[in-house]
Design brief:
CATH topology of the domain at 71-154: Ribosomal Protein L9, domain 2
Helix content: 40-55%
Strand content: 15-25%
Structural class: alpha+beta
Number of helices: 7
Distance between the termini: 113 Å
CATH architecture of the domain at 71-154: Roll
Number of strands: 8
Length: 203
C-alpha cells in the first residue's frame, strides 16, 4: 500500500513523502501511530504543505537538540554482567536499560523509539545510534563485559596479541640482512690467518 508520511520515520522517509509499504506495516503501525495516512487523492494534495511544515519543525528541533547530540556523541556506557562460557548473557541489555543509564549519567530523557537496537545478549562492544531527529543521530558505544573482568574490547586484544606473535616469529628483510652480516663476521674471526711461504721456510 502507499502512504503519505506526516512525520519523519527513521529508515523510511521524511514527512511529506509518499512511500510504498507492506499493508500490515502501514495499517498496524504507521497509521495507528500517527506517522502516516493512506495516500488518497485528497492526501496527495496535502503533501507539499506537510513537507514545508515538517522542514520548518525539523530545523527548529535540530537547533534545539544540537547540544544534546554533542553531549551524547562518542560517549561510552559500560555494563558488568553475568555470562556463560560462550559469552552469552544471563539475560540481556535492553534499550530501556540504555535509556535509564543515559538519564542517570547525563540527565537526558529519551523515548524508547529513539534508541533503536535489539536486546544485547552477547559480551562485546556495540555502537548504538540515538535518533534525536532525522539529521541528528549521535552514536554511543556500549561495552558489555563479564563481572570480575576488565571492560576490554576483545577484538582489539586479539589483534594486539596476533601482531605481537607475528613480530616474534617473522623477521623483517632488514633484520635478516643484519643477522647474515653478524654471522659472516663471526666466521671470519674464528678462521686462523693463513701462513705465508716465508713462515713455512723458517720452520
Amino acid at each position: 500500500m502507499k502512504v503519505l508520511l506526516i512525520k519523519d520515520v527513521y529508515k523510511l522517509g521524511r514527512a511529506g513523502e509518499i512511500k510504498k509499504v507492506a499493508a500490515g506495516y502501514g495499517r498496524n503501525y504507521l497509521i495507528p501511530q500517527g506517522l502516516a495516512i493512506p495516500a488518497s487523492k485528497g492526501a496527495m494534495q496535502q503533501a507539499e504543505r506537510i513537507r514545508v511544515k515538517a522542514t520548518e519543525r525539523r530545523a527548529a528541533l535540530n537547533e534545539e537538540l544540537g547540544d544534546i547530540a554533542e553531549v551524547l556523541n562518542g560517549k561510552t556506557i559500560i555494563y558488568s554482567v553475568k555470562a556463560g562460557e560462550t559469552g552469552r548473557l544471563y539475560g540481556s541489555v535492553s534499550n530501556e536499560e540504555i535509556i535509564k543509564t543515559i538519564a542517570t549519567d547525563y540527565e537526558i530523557e529519551l523515548e524508547k523509539r529513539q534508541v533503536e537496537t535489539e536486546p544485547i545478549r552477547q559480551l562485546g562492544t556495540y555502537t548504538v545510534p540515538i535518533h534525536l531527529t532525522m539529521d541528528l543521530v549521535p552514536e554511543v558505544t556500549v561495552i558489555v563485559h563479564r563481572e570480575g573482568e576488565p571492560p576490554i574490547d576483545e577484538e582489539e586484544e586479539t589483534e594486539v596479541e596476533e601482531a605481537a606473535e607475528a613480530d616474534d616469529e617473522v623477521a623483517t628483510p632488514e633484520e635478516m640482512v643484519e643477522e647474515e652480516a653478524v654471522e659472516e663476521e663471526a666466521v671470519e674471526e674464528e678462521e686462523p690467518p693463513a701462513e705465508t711461504p716465508q713462515e713455512i721456510t723458517e720452520e
